[in-house]
């Protein structure tokens, strides 16, 4: 199995604070991988390490078996907030992309895609809507015909319809080209429909990672009587529990044995699994840290 992204003991720190630590990852080629986690978890840092914009302070990351700098011609990257030269039109950006990527540039693909989406070719991109700009950035990244496409929160500013259209465009494009995608997002419901690999970061560490179908198959929600959890001891490991006066709801990592019929088993969604793993309280900053000496 070819790995598109592989990281071992990868770490990056700013001053004394680790933005990413002990990160071990293996994203197989051809996957659409979602990178999720709370604000400040280290998602952008990880993407910047993968594209070679940052150098690791520990460990290493490889892209198709090579250091990121060597793999750069095979990587397409759309940074957070899709930065584009705002005074240029989409048509000018497509031409400029051709000059910057002489080895491989599919201008026809970008033009066809933008034409289909009704993006005006002759309007400065600064005057397009946020969704249209995101589509321009995606079309430019795809025109590079990358083997790995990195997208940092590409749909954050889009309305629900534009989000769906963006994800459909993305999935259609990568299915045709067998591109591997690593995309960070907070929008779990959108990811469930389109991603087949998941990486959850929390407080600079990988909390959970693997193929979505395997992760979902490994967890169940159980509902049953309060204080009945002894009945599942040894059969299922409780990841998160919530209780009302009458019943308990448990998210469990499923073992092999049968579950006591006291409990009703339900399948889980991606959102259930991610939120249960992130539910640990985030550390708070004490109010005293905000005091500024006059
Ligand atoms: N240039 C920098 N200098 C100092 N600290 C930084 C810098 N960039 C990021 N950090 C810190 O590194 C940590 C990880 O930041 P990062 O931007 O990777 O998180 P993120 O998961 O992408 O967050 P978000 O979802 O808010 O975009 C945070 O604690 C952040 O404050």
UniProtKB/TrEMBL annotation:
GO terms for molecular function: ATP binding. Keywords: ATP-binding, Nucleotide-binding, Transport. Residues 5-228 form the ABC transporter domain. InterPro entries: AAA+_ATPase, ABC_transporter-like_ATP-bd, P-loop_NTPase. Transmembrane segments: none annotated. Pfam families: ABC_tran (PF00005). CDD domains: ABC_DR_subfamily_A. Gene3D superfamilies: P-loop containing nucleotide triphosphate hydrolases. Belongs to the ABC transporter superfamily. This is ABC transporter ATP-binding protein.
């Amino acid at each position: 199995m070819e790995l598109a992204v592989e990281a071992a003991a990868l770490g990056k720190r700013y001053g004394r604070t680790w933005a990413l630590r002990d990160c071990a990852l293996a994203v197989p080629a051809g996957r659409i991988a979602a990178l999720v986690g709370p604000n400040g978890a280290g998602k952008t840092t990880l993407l910047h390490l993968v594209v070679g914009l940052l150098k690791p302070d520990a460990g290493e990351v490889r892209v198709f078996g090579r250091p990121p700098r060597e793999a750069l011609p095979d990587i397409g990257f759309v940074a957070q907030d899709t930065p584009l030269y705002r005074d240029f039109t989409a048509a000018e950006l497509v031409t400029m992309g051709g000059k910057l990527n002489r080895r491989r540039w599919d201008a026809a693909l970008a033009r066809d895609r933008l034409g289909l989406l009704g993006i005006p070719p002759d309007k400065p991109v600064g005057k397009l809507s946020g969704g249209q700009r995101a589509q321009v950035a995606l079309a430019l990244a795809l025109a590079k015909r990358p083997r790995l496409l990195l997208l940092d929160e590409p749909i954050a500013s889009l309305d629900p319809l534009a989000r769906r259209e963006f994800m459909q465009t993305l999935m259609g494009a990568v299915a045709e080209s067998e591109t591997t995608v690593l995309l960070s997002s907070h929008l779990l419901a959108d990811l469930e429909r389109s991603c087949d690999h998941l990486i959850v970061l929390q407080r600079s560490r990988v909390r959970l990672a693997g193929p979505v179908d395997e992760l979902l198959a490994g967890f169940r929600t159980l509902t049953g009587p309060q204080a009945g959890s002894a009945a599942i001891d040894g059969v299922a490991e409780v990841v998160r529990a919530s209780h009302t006066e009458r019943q308990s709801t448990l998210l469990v990592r499923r073992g092999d044995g049968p579950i006591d019929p006291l409990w009703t088993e339900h399948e889980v969604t991606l959102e259930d699994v991610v939120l249960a793993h992130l539910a640990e309280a985030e550390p708070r900053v004490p109010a005293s840290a905000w005091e500024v000496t006059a």
